[in-house]
Fold:
Amino acid sequence: MTNIFDLTGKVALVTGARTGIGQGIAEGLAEAGCDIIGAGHAPMPETEKYIKALGRRFLFYDIDLVKQDKIQDLINETIKTFGRLDILVNNAGIIRREDVLDFSESNWDDVINMNLKSLFFLSQAAGRYMKEHGGGKIINIASMLSFQGGIRVVSYTASKSGVAGITKLMANELAKYNIQVNAIAPGYIDTNNTAALIADPKRSAEILSRIPADRWGRPEDLKGAAVFLASRASDYVNGHILAVDGGWLAR
Ligand code: NAP
Structure:
């Protein structure tokens, strides 16, 4: 029987695959059969070791995604090394916490540059390649703050609301080229990104009390959604934002 989720022979580029959600997704895609390019600003020995132990290939590409100057090189290097690009996961993201009335320009610019501008131009570069090569999958990492306002994270909320919009726009324009653009909106996942929340007993308890699943998420909780959106199982799914949130949005 053929496996509709099988990704054998596919090549996936995952940004921010050193830690957290990106690491979980890269490992999940490799478990389903992908070779992986991990793009980030520090080597990823743990991710590399796990993926190579599965018998898959792994390439680390050094890039600071606050800037856009190496984005085309990253796509070129992927094609040069692995001969193809099937899946792009725009996972790398940063957050800055500051009261809205004090929020600094640098905390605005860094977050928007990385979470929104680099995500778009990387998707554009990947989309151009995919259009010429029969299609592909672009998976953006959105957030609960693609739907809600949040507190003390105005540039992050702006960026993740923008990610939802870009996902839908690109899905509209690229569906006819057999490129499916979708997003995963993680709920509250225990990673470096949320370390400050977890360390604050009051905020941490407030958050946990409204998660129906009664636990914080873990990076591996995102594997299934990523494999689905990367596989032919989702060939007629376009512009969807799939919440993986233990029920947070349903509450
Ligand atoms: P994380 O562990 O901090 O992951 C962020 C990743 O982005 C890391 O691999 C990090 O690399 C990379 N990165 C940071 N700055 C970079 C730069 N300038 N250039 C290239 N890469 C850079 O946190 P996470 O929670 O897994 O976040 C992953 C994604 O999920 C983000 O888009 C985040 O907004 C989103 N998200 C997280 C949650 C949550 O609850 N955790 C919820 C919703 C959405 P280094 O580790 O090497 O710095």
